[in-house]
Amino acid sequence: MLLQRNHKRNHWVNKLKVKGIYTKPNRWLLLLLLFPLLILSACTSGPENSKKDDATPNKENTKSSGTAFKVVIDPGHGGKDNGATGASGRYEKNFTLSLSKKVQKLLEDEPEIEVLMTRTDDSFLSQESRYRPKYANKQNADVFISIHGNIFSDPDVSGTETFYYHKHSRQLAQTIQKHVVEATEFRDRGIKKEELFVVKDTEMPASLIEVGYMTNPQEESKMWTDEFQSRVATSIVEGIKEYREQSEGQGNLEWIS
């Protein structure tokens, strides 16, 4: 009986093999195991996953463009700190504020430049607080320009000079000095490295301009005129713009101390 049953089984198996229906049991088991994996793979490669990839930001595309070039203008002295007293008895603090406001107004007309002022009135900013350089650093400014009038015991001493401290500020000082001297038509006293806190404590390129000697009667009389201040303000703006172009061309806006 067992032999007969085996014979019948083999007979049906052979018929199924001929029709291509029969496979060994282990193949069916393999298909049953693989089927869930195939379904899972199809789901994870569907449209939702594609959208997630599309939503991944491109670092190059998210980079900000058109960032303004920040300029901090610092009118020297102020409040109870009068600065130099000129030959006429007028104070340096008033001269620096008047000239600085003219520079501010011109820079506000430059669409790619943002201008900031350390003071816009007769405010006192103590040296001990180091407010001026701290303010520029906090604003992450690109350049810092401090405006002053000079003084000396000899009234015949005259001229325009610009101070800097850090190596990365030298080019700014040279560029500003060149333009301002052309505007003042005073003696060119050049640029000098000096340990002045407003140019030493600032992290960005910084320069301090001594426009002229207020103790020199001839120079001081010109320095108070609106025509002279407008001309010098224009020269400072042109110097800033030229320095910006130089910096971008050299790729050194990311300066190193």
Automatic annotation (TrEMBL):
Q: Where is this region: Disordered?
A: 46-87
Which superkingdom does the taxonomy of this entry point to? Bacteria
N-terminal signal peptide: none
Basic and acidic residues biased stretches: 49-62
- Residue intervals of the MurNAc-LAA domain: 133-241
Per UniProt, the keywords (alphabetical) are:
Hydrolase
Q: Which InterPro entries match?
A: MurNAc-LAA_cat (IPR002508), N-acetylmuramoyl_amidase_3 (IPR050695)
Q: PANTHER family under this entry?
A: N-ACETYLMURAMOYL-L-ALANINE AMIDASE, N-ACETYLMURAMOYL-L-ALANINE AMIDASE AMIC
**Protein name (Swiss-Prot/TrEMBL):** N-acetylmuramoyl-L-alanine amidase
